[in-house]
Amino acid sequence: MKWLFGKKNKETNVETLDSLLKELKASSDFIHFHYEQSPHGYWISYFQTLVESKILHRDILPYVNKETLKSLEKFKEVIPIEDVEITSDVKKIKNKILQGYVFIQLHEHDNEGLIIHAATHKNRQVSVPEVEFSVIGPKEAFVESVDTNLNLVRKRLPIPNLRIEEVRVGKLSKTRTYIMYVEGISNEENVNTLRQRVKGIDFDTITDSSFIAQMIEDNHNSPFPQLIDTERPDRVAAILAEGKVAILVDGSPHAIFGPTTITEFFSAFEDYFLSWHIASAFRLIRIFAVAFSILSTPIYVATITYHYELIPKDLLSTLITSRSNIPLPPFFEAVFLELTIELLREAGARLPTKVGQTIGIVGGIVIGTASVEAGLTSNILLIIVALAALASFTTPIYRMGNTIRLIRFPFLVLGAIWGFVGIVLAFSFLIAHLLKLTSLGRPYLEPIYPPRITDWKDAIIRLPYSYLGKRPVQLQTQDTVRFSEQHAKKKRDHISRKSDIDD
Asked: What is the pLDDT of residues 403-461, one digit of tens each?
């Protein structure tokens, strides 16, 4: 069995360390040289691409060049860097060098040396959310630096019981992964489940949080996401206070959290910045839009193919006129338009922003108009498919939007084969699948099933904040009370008694 660099054997530490440095020197960005300008001389080793040159020349080299320093202990005392350690552990030396540490030896074949943290951090500045943009509310989004992301969450939850656990995931990448929860609020079973699944990941390279989300989900064969990803630090702070568990991954501008329910995928975090009337109306609109996106085209195909007697006479004449010159059956006509919409959507997403917008708008108009004039599709079906595609974009969570796009096709196929019976059959399979689905072992359809009446106040609709004093029952948190609902409902405008002021 071999290490990533060098061989694992029973030789002495000097020989093993020498073989490690020999392997590292095969990379052109690895620096290993004898610094003779020092009064006593020493050997320095580091990756040039991982080390911050300012730290090296400002905080390390000027101090190790002093004449009075003749031992590693003296070096450790005078270097103004907190993370400094003397070690002879070859495995630790290898890991630290690959993380941006500087390794210093007094002599070339010494079996111990000084490892000094001098890693460089190349990352972009905190910017505005792109996927979860909101007109009202904070405008900060996560970036690829996990240290910056932890800071964004910490400053929103400045409490000592916010726990952050580091786990290295990936045999080759050794990606820094952090599990976050609030001790005393989060259910320990949820924390242990998530911790066990993350530590049990056996994969070579982890480059994004989406890798981990797919590997730790309860059902890998389900098209429905069982964990929510977000780019908003304010949302992560809110769900941690609610009792959920979050994961941050170095190199990923998104966090994932759970356990979650299907209703959370249709609520945007911006809903909490609006009045409860408007937020509830928007949630109902999104749910209606999702239902319309899934069922509109299959119902049209099933009605035209098998159940045309259900169409009102005034509308039937319009449908007959629009389809009089269409050579394709309704099913193939609908599939043609659905695939065209998907092609335009994928082309617009993969092209540069300005070009993609032009392709989506111009392509949709040109292809739609041309297909109607050529007699390949009808005007009515073109309108229905376009509205269904537009409705699928109302889903706030991108992964759930992709799921909605996918499950339309089984409904369309079964509707074309068996009409309304096929649509009901597809809906039955969908409900049965959702009933079995869980998120970190918790019911996915909660609070719909099992019914949790107390959780309905922030599910399909959102009641005023004064009614949200309890944490969701589904999470089974250690502390179920967020605040006193009776105290929150009191009107504090006209306080006359001193006891009320003291309260």
From this structure: 999 999 999 999 999 999 999 999 999 999 999 999 999 999 999 988 988 899 999 99
- Asked whether 241 and 139 are in contact (CB, 8 A), the reply is no
The DSSP secondary-structure symbol of 126 reads P
118 alpha-carbon distance from chain centroid: 30
CA distance 330 to 298: 10
C-alpha–C-alpha distance, residues 353 and 338, integer Å: 23
The contacts of residue 415 (CB under 8 Å, 6+ apart) are: 298, 299, 301, 302, 422, 423, 426
Distance CA 70, CA 436 (A): 68
The DSSP code for 273 is G
- CB 225 within 8 Å of CB 400: yes
Give the relative orientation of helices 330-350 and 379-392 as an angle to the nearest 10 degrees. Answer: 40
Give yes or no for a contact between 170 and 205, defined as CB atoms under 8 angstroms apart. Answer: yes
Please state the pTM of the whole predicted model. Answer: 0.85
Long-range contacts, 452-461 (Cβ 8 Å, 24+): 459/261, 459/263, 460/263, 460/283, 460/284, 460/287, 461/276, 461/280, 461/283, 461/284
Tell me the three-class secondary structure of 436-469, residue by residue: HCEECCEECCCCCCCCCHHHHHECCCECCHHHCC
The backbone torsions φ and ψ at residue 157, rounded to the nearest 5 degrees and listed phi first, read -130, 75
Helix (H, G, I), strand (E, B) or coil at 54: helix
Rg of the chain on CA atoms, in Å: 30
Rounded to an integer, what is the distance from CA 343 to the centroid of its chain?
A: 25
- Which residues, in sequence order, are bridge partners of residue 481? 470
Three-state DSSP state, 289: helix
How far is Cα 296 from Cα 104, in angstroms, rounded to an integer?
69
Element (H, E) at 369: helix 353-373
- The tokens for 35 are 């610094």
Tokens of 272: 């909490």
Residues in a beta bridge with 33? 44
Q: For 128, list phi and psi in degrees, rounded to 5.
A: -80, 140
Each residue's pLDDT tens digit, 1-29: 343 434 444 444 344 788 888 889 888 88
Measured torsion, CA atoms of residues 438, 441, 446, 449, in degrees rounded to the nearest 10: 80
